[in-house]
Fold this sequence. Notes:
- Keywords: Hydrolase.
- InterPro entries: AB_hydrolase_fold, Esterase-like, Siderophore_Hydrolase_D.
- The structure is a single chain.
- It contains ten helices and ten strands.
- By secondary structure, the chain is of the alpha/beta class.
- Strand 1 (40-45) and strand 2 (50-56) form a beta hairpin.
Amino acid sequence: MSSGPWKRGAGCGWASPPVSEDGHDRRHAFGCGFPDNKRCDVIAKSRRSLLASIPTICLAGKLAAQGSTRPDFTEAPEYRIFDAPPDTHILSRQDVTVDGSGYRLFLAVPKATAPADGWPSLWMLDGNAVFDRIGASDLVSQPGLAVIGIGYPVDQIFDTTARALDYTPVSRVPDPEAGRGRATGGADSFRTRLLGPLRDAVEKRVSIDPARRVLWGHSYGGLFTLHCLLSEPHAFAGWAPTSPSSGFGGNVLQHLSAGAPLLEPGKIAPVHIMLGDSEYRRGTEPPAVPQPSPDTMALAKLLEQREDLDVRVTVLKGLGHGQTFAASFPQALDLAANLPGN
């Protein structure tokens, strides 16, 4: 594990409700969940090194823990950051329609003059929830980073129907969302939209460095992030899947990894996987000892075998599925801000 900026080529479930829309426990959802000044243990490992435990401060944007109640997915976002934006960034929103599907683009663009190659950028799925929960201090900490949220034109923090379709690949087993009335399996189509019309809509307005784009996603968004990596590894220069739904569809990702395309020789992309050790699916008993998702850890081991990826896994002690959403922001922002260009 490297302690500084990423360097190219540098070696280089829960037992019962409350649960999320994809079956994950949402206790303390979206908060850090730690008392003041308490540190969370992080286990980080890469293809070339393994550190058993590293203390790190868990920063969770502007959020406070929300206790044990299940979040209301119809909750209206407050977007407080738009009312009190940071001095470092200009914030905006734009609705676009692609192939009959609506999306809402959230932009936080540095106020300074863009570098000749454009800004490094962090592209974040579930943009409504991200921009409802990201804090001004998060952006101030990275004044030279453009943050793009890909959301939906709805008045809720999540569009559970749209994200279930957009973020999931075709399942190898009976559709896990069928009982909820949601279609799945649209990841390939959404990837085409994201890398084409949606990216174009953003980059017509903002100068973005094409060699320094990073993709972040949580839960189903993390699933999509990994699916995109395994399908088109050149689409982004770095990857930050958080609490990915890695077991979706009969472990589609593990099967896809066997024949996944590689980056061209000499290219190495950082992959920073973040997840809690207190995530377990509904209908199952909590493990006697907290542990990260076996599906995600197994997939990480497969990715670590690739010479074109520099894989880091960070396990956040004590965090459940919902808590990792905002707790991952600082590390994802840091990854994107410090990713070197060509």
